[in-house]
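quick one, three chains, predict together pls
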Amino acid sequence: MDLLAGLNDQQSAAVIHDGGPLLVVAGAGSGKTRVLTHRIAHLIHERGVSPYEILAITFTNKAADEMRERVGRLVGDRFVGLSREEDGTARVRRWGGMWVATFHSACSRLLRQEAHRLGYDNRFTIYDSSDSTRLVGICINDLGIDPKKITPRGAAAAISRAKNELIDFDAFALRARKDGTWYDRQVAEIYRAYQGRLHRASAFDFDDLLVKTVELFELFGDALDHWRQRFRYVLVDEWQDTNHAQYELVRLLCWEHRNLSVVGDSDQSIYGFRGADIRNILDFELDFPDATRVTLDRNYRSTQTILDAANAVIAHNLQRIPKHLWTDVGAGAPIVSYTGENEHDEAAFVAEETARLAEQGEFSPGDCAVFYRTNAQSRLLEEVLVRLGMPYQVVGGTRFYDRAEIKDLLAYLRVIVNPADDVSARRILNVPRRGIGARTEAALDLFAGQERIPFLEACRRVEETQLAARAVGAVSGFVQLIDDLRAAVDTGELSLREIVELVWTRTRYLAELEAERTVEALGRVENVRELATVADEFAARQPDATLPELLESIALVSEQDQLGEGAPRLVLMTMHNAKGLEFPVVFMVGMEDSVFPHHLTLGDPGALEEERRLCYVAMTRAQQRLYLTRAWHRTLFGATNANPPSRFLREVPAELVQDRSGDSGGPSRRGLAKAGARSQYQRDDDTDDGDLLVGDWILHPRFGTGQILELSGQPGSEEAVIRFDESGTKRLALAYAPLVKMW
DNA sequence: GCCTAGCCCATTTTT
DNA sequence: TGGGCTAGGC
């Protein structure tokens, strides 16, 4: 097998590189995944490296699965821990072959073997961000700090930032005392309390997975030696988005053997806000002076037009390694710009254009993707798509696993696995309602703190508290329930699905929901049942899977992981979520200053550069067609604004762009008509402002919808009194007011 | 202890 | 826009 077949010179160089650190600067669409997979295959095949010695880090679980499959195809499934069924479906053997994982899942896996050394249970729980925010809130409460002055969210974010920098609470406190604000000193206290709570609960938050692994390596030389020898070859994808903790982890693992390959693109660093440190890539060669650099700038994805546009935009950034993408596939179609009257019009354009492409047989809706800056923008896109009957899928937004009912059930499962998990125990203490209120909970927590025991243990000893008999009875019932569930699970006779079902039956969770008989409750019932399906699917992929493993995989799923399930349809997602993906047709909507770039970044040059990188990432997802759309007027969070065109739009050379705003009879006519059409969309070109009558409903771009109460004046200078739904009653001159009749 | 109404608030991106 | 939270009533 020729692993270099079809690769260009730079790619080949990266694949066969031997000896010392390797930095692959890989522009968007330059085939970096190919380089990584072929490099791994090369190591195994040509250099006799055991797959067992390889650690490959990817950005999402989905990317990890893909890489495992691709390497498997090159060198054989058994090397990568895959086994294949007769029908071709892949199954993952748990400890098989090489590790392909995200930072977080790799650390989690490693800590499952090592956590006890750090004083944690190997069956630790992983807290997601909402769990940690909750716990921070509890700590704020404990310390008697006013949660209005320091919000749980704010404090949690500050703590997370510190952890990303490997600053523990002592160091944090020291710094806060020296030259910190009052806020910092309070956070230092919260940080300490929070970490104590985590430890007592045998729980790690996302950041701890990294921090504690680093700590393990620093404290236990034998552990470091062991894992260092185990992973003699380390490859990291998306290096530009690593934070300091991740960097340190990699440095510790690789410092001696130096078999480190990192692949990244400083222009695609878009996670600075959560601690990703762009210097990790910019300074790589300072930290590893013996590193070899290979630059991949030949793009295999997009047309030259799209690349020219993206290159032009990113060239405005100062913090970067200069690089210029090129391709030989030709110029392709021009970039299309469109300005709608308002956001409804803009959305309608996207939907219509997708439909038009499909009608012409050029691209199916499944080839198209819509990217927006914030999740809030997805709703009205969805409205329009529903109205037009265009099938679509939203990636991200409210995650399945963030729904209250799912978190409730998961909390039961987590308590079964890890009885010390206080956040989960407290979450379900009174869910479903069993008459245990805030006072009882507080008393139990106090008792737990005094006795230095987990919350559930405090519940078990509820009789030692001063609580009233009724509360004691209710709490005992709760403990009994948990004990019963754990006993049933511990028999080892239940499948994952049966465990999930047991929880919702024994707790009467499902029954209570069904009894509500509301539409919302019905949706929740479906979600709850869906969790059993998740359990089944997990068991199918990994036949010997255990409950802790199921919980771990759920804790570490990412947004992109849901992509591509079901029939192909138009995909909606944030630009961040688009990273690493590609689509024949891409719409970028909301190209307005203060939407994108986001208004919070406008005054901050560094943040603005990150926005520009985000723009670059989004643009370079497009293979053949790129649409950049905006609206003259946009209503967001109830307020209507007229935003100037995005500066990124102005950075695209005009000759690459074709403006389609003039399509179909002028923007205002088109847009307003669309906003008005409620149940059935129709192009409303024959609406004539002159035909207005008292009682008509109209739409004004600034004031919204309203009803005409009164008409007066001579033809040519008529006035109307209009009662707007949102903006009150106004008298407007018809000759000037841009009114459009709705129905 | 529970429920609801009304308030208030903020409002980016997420492993 | 709505979602999360508190205060007040049962």
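The first helix of chain A runs from residue 9 to 16.
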